[in-house]
TrEMBL record, chain B:
Organism of provenance: marine metagenome
Gene Ontology CC: membrane
Cofactor(s) named in the record: [4Fe-4S] cluster
Stated name of the protein: 4Fe-4S ferredoxin-type domain-containing protein
InterPro entries: 4Fe4S_Fe-S-bd, 4Fe4S_Fe_S_CS, NADH_quinone_OxRdtase_chainI
Amino acid sequence: MDLSPITGVPLLVATSLKIAIMFGVVMLTVAYTTLAERRVSAFIQDRHGPNRVGPFGLLQPIADGLKNLVKEEALPGAASKSYFMLGPMLAMGPALVTFAVVPFAAPLPTQWGVIDMIIADVPIGILYILALGSLGVYGIVIGGWASNNKYAFLGALRASAQMVSYEVALGLSLIVVLMMAGNVTLTGIVWQQQQLGFWFAFPLSLGFILFVVSAFAETNRLPFDMPEAESELITGFHTEYSAMKFSMFFIAEYAHMLTASALMATLFWGGWDLPGSWDDAYWYRGELIRGFDESGATIAAAPAVWKTLLTFAAFALKTAFFLFLYIWIRWTVPRFRYDQVMQLGWKIMLPTALAYLMVVAGTILVLDQVEVSGFSFGLTLTGVSVICTVAFVFFLDRGRIIGGAASPSKPGPVVLEPTPGGQGMIAGEGATVGD
Amino acid sequence: MAITTRVVQRPEPGQTSYLRATLKGMALTLRHMLKSKTVTRQYPEEQTELHPRWRGTHVMEVHADGRPKCVACGLCPTVCPANCIRLVGGEDDKGNRYPIVYEIDEFRCIFCGMCQEVCPVEAIHVGRDFENAEYTRDRFVYDLDRLMKQDHPSTLLWDPADPAGE
């Protein structure tokens, strides 16, 4: 079989097909994540959720989409019309294109050559995602401002403030990954995890935790949904939006969630990688390799269709788990107060990310100096990271990792006891004070 | 009523534990998700069990030969507090009274069941049925034919000897 990269017309066809298919898959996943959100929240709250349209409610997203398409749009009279229209588009566009640089399976061998299972393996990789992911907030800010509504405006302001605060921690938690991988392309990061024999979630466990928390804040999901905050701001930035424009904001939110979940899977859980080196494949100086032998010579990879399918399933499963985590946490944890969000972002996340960056950098330097590499390199870093994580959790949990909400030395919430001296105590005459 | 004051001691910020509370909460929600105890009744498929004395859509009892049991005595339109029964009585050549027009406006009806209680020949009944939705308002005026065609069970009258209905 031809193990050279695909070129010419087949490359064009393959890329077009990949774009079409991945667009469809992303849109479908987004649609069904909304259904999963409603069903899972229903199960968590002992309800049924939407189960009427189709078997188990599986056609509900299609019904919702149709409804939103034919629904009447409301355009507020005082709104700035062009920006009002621009908002949802600007939110949805970047959310959909970020998925282009995420590898979703092992390379697929065909008779025309090997097809990379990634839409565009651009050399700037993760920087592209950071750049475009941050663009999403412009849609929110423009939409909220153009609505000419106080609540929408407040939501937009909160969105931008939150984005600025957590982008820092997000970026810093990514730097440890980039230090380990020595490469910003996502294919390179997956390859380094395969080579190390460790998915980065183990040697960089604290980085993973910081990344997950920042990603939750970046995607404006509970407990960080400051821009929407239904109980405070109606629905925040999209208060004035209805029908398909609202739907576009909604799609943008879920597409961001999907991208963030795919990133958690790719950066920290090996992406499409499965345990073992049988599925490893990477373009090294023009040839597809599986690894290096002791003398440093390359071992050619053996791509296969079943390997591609299996690794795609692994990637889908990992991403689905993080999507579920998003939903699970949303229906468990209440929203933070605004000042708590800012405090967590600037006073905890940022210093922790910086300190952790220094620790990892120092450890890598020391390990390089004493020429430790491979498995023991990963193991040492895992140990260091576990210590860091425990320390962080200990600090964040205010001194007790596994302690109750009330300390045993002081009594907990007081149980109402019968009034001493019987009934007839009236406030003012001498109210009893329990202790 | 005694008025008492009590001081609730909340844990100090240093004593609270966010992560543990969150993990506990997540365990709880996961438990509920995996073992959902839904009490919602899936209505059209799972029917509600109506009480034997549930008062719903009216039923007119019929003789074996298909005539209504009503003798057009006029007691039910008289007793009806909502004034929703329209009765025009007639008499055949043998001197038997029968209803020429018997209409019940189910919209006006308050389903008190007094028509059933007052009927001397046990002809008109309120029934164990509540699914009487229609597309137009005039469909809610049930005429004699329609009342005779109702096939749901009629309501059990209250029995003084068995007040709990057992």
